[in-house]
Amino acid sequence: LARLRGRLARSNSSLGRGLLAVLGRTDLDDAAWEELEDTLLAADVGVGPTTELVENLRTRVRVEGIDDPERAKAALREELIDLVGPQMDRSLRSIGDDGLPGVVLVVGVNGTGKTTTVGRLARVLVAQDRTVLLGAADTFRAAAADQLQTWGERVGVPTVRGAEGADPASVGYTAVQRGIQDGVDTVLVDTAGRLHTKAGLMDELGKVKRVAEKQAPITEVLLVIDATTGQNGLRQAQVFSEVVDVTGVVLTKLDGTAKGGIVVAVQRELGVPVKFVGLGEGADDLAPFEAEEFVDALLD
Ligand code: GDP
């Protein structure tokens, strides 16, 4: 965990440095507040949350008579944690009710890290002594199913896949059916994400969900967003949330960007929590998201 924190801190150090540099000034004048705003905006925090944070902080500095940088930093830390939402439920609903498996659909645009996320989630669950089955419902790219199966073999869990070009919904259906038969705790379903045809995506994803749901309720729909894509990632989030009820976000590639503020923006946009973050390409580089830890890493 310390290693992951170090990586997050490095990737986001420009935001942390920028924020602390502004608050380190002896004179918190208008220009300093503007600079703070610019720093937050540049880190993809988004206009609404940025304005809110700066207003709150300004008010506190005035009302509480904060006049030294250390206290200002402590106040900034508290405000940032507030913004990230320390009370949000970030647990993964990986177990179903009435003895049914939990069914987790993993959705997102191709290349964001969906398949990697499914593999790493399987690894996390298996480490917790859970039984897991993978469903390769991205049937459009044989390579995607191969990649998922390779993860399955690495982690030691079975993968249900269809022939190339098979109906994704039928693969999802078969995976859940087999999961019920085998009595596994969790079925993780990888889906296709070709965003260029929005209507096609709607149809396909909606169908995967409806058909899978005939056997067991979907316990979680995780949307994978690549943190390095900024506003584009937010637009993708909107499209996906129109198609399926997203219950949580996995923000990948946080190791590759200084724009950690996307965490705040995406939660505001979707009204659901970031549950996991990807901090590298390795098998262990998926971490549960924690507001305080994240903010401390930002400000490190
Ligand atoms: P998919 O098309 O959405 O299924 O994406 P993949 O799972 O194939 O991932 C696309 C690429 O992103 C691969 O090269 C992954 O190794 C890489 N990737 C996934 N998650 C992360 C992450 O958290 N950090 C970094 N640096 N790379 C990642």
TrEMBL record:
Principal location class: membrane
Chain ranges of the SRP54-type proteins GTP-binding domain: 273-286
EC number: 3.6.5.4
Enzyme type, top EC level: hydrolase
Subcellular localization(s) per the UniProt record: Cell membrane; Cytoplasm
Binding site for GTP: 108-115, 190-194, 252-255
Catalytic activity: GTP + H2O = GDP + phosphate + H(+)
UniProt entry keywords in alphabetical sequence: Cell membrane, Cytoplasm, GTP-binding, Hydrolase, Membrane, Nucleotide-binding, Receptor, Transmembrane, Transmembrane helix
Topology within the bilayer: Peripheral membrane protein
Function: Involved in targeting and insertion of nascent membrane proteins into the cytoplasmic membrane. Acts as a receptor for the complex formed by the signal recognition particle (SRP) and the ribosome-nascent chain (RNC).
UniProt similarity note: Belongs to the GTP-binding SRP family. FtsY subfamily.
Subunit relationships: Part of the signal recognition particle protein translocation system, which is composed of SRP and FtsY.
Record protein name field: Signal recognition particle receptor FtsY
Organism: Aeromicrobium halocynthiae
Gene name in the database record: ftsY
From-to range in the entire protein, with total length: 89 to 388 of 388
